[in-house]
Each structure stands twice: as structure tokens, then as C-alpha cells.
Amino acid sequence: MPLPAFAVTVAGWGPGSMQAPFANFGSLTNKGVDFQINSTNITSKNFNWKTAFTISRNINKVTYLGAGGSDANLSQKSYVINDIIEKTVVGQPIGEFYGYVFDGIFAKPSDLLNHALPANASGNPYPVSPAGGGIWYGDRMFKDLNGDGIIDSRDQTFLGSPIPKFQYGINNTFNYKNFDLNIFFSGSYGNKVFNQMAIQQSDPQNHTTYFTSVLNYAKLAMVDPAGSSSDVNNVYVTNPNTTIVGVRNDNTNSNNRPNSLFIEDGSFLRCKNITLGYRISESLLSKISVRSVRIYANVSNAFIITKYKGMDPEIGSWNPLQAGWDSGYYPQPRVFTIGANITLK
Predict the structure, then answer these.
(1) 56-112: per-residue pLDDT in tens?
(2) Residue 84 covered by a domain
(3) CB pairs under 8 A, 24+ apart, for 285-290?
(4) How many domains does the chain have?
(5) In a shared domain, residues 278 and 341
(6) Is residue 17 part of a domain?
(7) What mean pLDDT, rounded, does the chain reach?
(8) Region 257-281 average pLDDT
(9) Are residues 242 and 318 in the same domain?
(10) Among 203, 227, 255, which residue terminates a domain?
(11) Which of 25, 130, 135, 338 minimizes the number of CB atoms within 10 Å of its CB?
(12) Does the residue 87 lie in any domain?
């Protein structure tokens, strides 16, 4: 059944007044399924192997956002680019990412002459020019989704959800004589992460710290070194596959506008825990006041397999409207533990 999901203040601040209370005004639905399989793979006198596999699928959908109907939305701006990067609208999952689709770098004459260019204040495309107020080699291209030949707000689209398509866990337990080994994996598939850190740290015009990827900025060269550096047909980018803009003191193109380049695949497989233990034989303990002794070594967060370029794709948030926003989220540490479990008689 629909669940109340959102809250807003019903009145503003006033002189000498308290902040107004919150009130539910939206609803959403969550539908899903959990599935678990437990198996005993091998069992013998000295060796046993058991596996537990779980998988869950949740489908989230916003069903109501007040009187605005299907036109209502809850938008969230990134503090880095001061522009909307996420929208919550009726019919879509909560907190879905929103923006332009990255389409490469302006790298050759045909790009500048044939690709759609961003619109200026009057709605016309900016000129092709290396001077300020123009679009030039090394600027980012964005897909013209509505096909009108101009890049503007009508070319924005939904870029994916921070909610995974499914989550899973795999637990394996092995026993061999007095030894025991447990290995637990957890994973997520199909969720997106907004790598907010990469916006500034991969921008060569930023004057703070950088990611090393900034060294692969779009580098310009001329077909004829003696020719004009402002001739579209005489300039090209030597590393056309880069995603880093060129070094130019101009941002007419709004290269860091919300776009798919910063919305990364957050799928991962993490080895969450490995524990190896050894139980000392009771015959060795029979002469002392000890019933059992088990010594063990454990490592948590042993390793992770992911395509995400940030420090950790497993991003949490107290705000469901900003789930999956990586603003420098501290990665889960790898922890080593050695201990013993002792039971006295």
C-alpha cells in the first residue's frame, strides 16, 4: 500500500516564532522479493561445506507529490556545481539522478561543425571560437536528445537510480577436523553513484588538489604549426578519448554541468569477512580447568571488486533524496583481528 514518504514545513520562519512542524505530503510504493537458498555441498567424516545465498529485489516508485500532480518534483542541487543533479518525480524512483548525457570531447573539425552546441541566453547556439564566449576544442559534448540542434535544458534526462536492481549475500562455511573457515560476500548491482568529488578534482581549471586523471586533459595541436591557432580546420585534440576538458580560461560550455560522466556504476562485490579458526582438542585441555579453546584470525572488508572510480561505492545517506551522493565518503577500513574464545569448566 502507498506509504507517506516526504515531509516539508507547512509554514516559514517568523519573528520570534519557532520553526513550523513537518507534514507528510507525498507517498511511494515499495514492492520486492527476498529469496534465500541454504545448501550442504559436501559432508563427510572430516570435511563439511555449507553455503547460504540470499538475494533481494526492491522496486521503488513515487506515486504522489501533492497538488502539483505529475509536474511536481523534489529537486536537489549539488553544492559543487550549484545545479540540479537529482529529481524525485511521480512515476520514477525516489532520488533519481538527472542531467545531460556526456558525448565525448570536441576533438576534430567535424565535432565543432556538426555537433549540437549549447544555447546562449537568447536561445541561439554559441559561436565556435577559442576566444571567451565561444565553444572550442577540449570542451565537452552533450547529446542532443530532442534533436533540435541546440543543447539546452530540454536535453536533460534521468541518468539512473541510487537504488540497486538487486542486492545479494553469499556465505560459505568450511569445517575440516578442528579447523573452521567462514567467508562472507555481500554485493549490489545496478545502482548509480554521483561521484561529486570528481567534478572539482578532475577539472584543470580548479586551483585546489587534483586527481591524477587531470593530467590527461585535452591537449591541442595544429595540423600546420605555421597556420592559425583559431582556424577550426587547423586544430585538433591529440588525445580525443579523454574525458578531461582542455586548459582554457573560459567555461562558456558549462563543462561541469550535471551529466552522466559523474554518475557512475556503483555495482560491487565485497568480501565482507574472512574468519579462520582452530579448536584445540579437548584431550589436551582435560588436565586443566578449561572446557574449550578456539583461536581465530579475522579480516573484515578484505577486498572489493567494482568499476566505481571513487573510494567506496557503498554510499549511505540519512536523506533518501540524496542517496548515493559521494562527497568524499570515507571508505570502510580493512580490519585484522586475532583472538581466542575460552570456555571454563
Answers:
(1) 999 999 998 877 666 667 888 888 888 999 999 999 999 999 999 999 999 999 999
(2) no
(3) 289/344, 289/345, 290/342, 290/343, 290/344, 290/345
(4) 2
(5) yes
(6) no
(7) 89
(8) 96
(9) no
(10) 255
(11) 338
(12) no
Q: How far apart are CA 280 and CA 179, in angstroms?
A: 9
Examine the domain organization and report whether 323 and 200 are in the same domain.
no
Q: Are residues 199 and 175 in the same domain?
A: no
What is the grid cell recorded at 164?
540497486
Same domain, 207 and 336: no
Same domain, 225 and 124: yes
307: cell is 568499476
Residue 66 lies in a domain: no
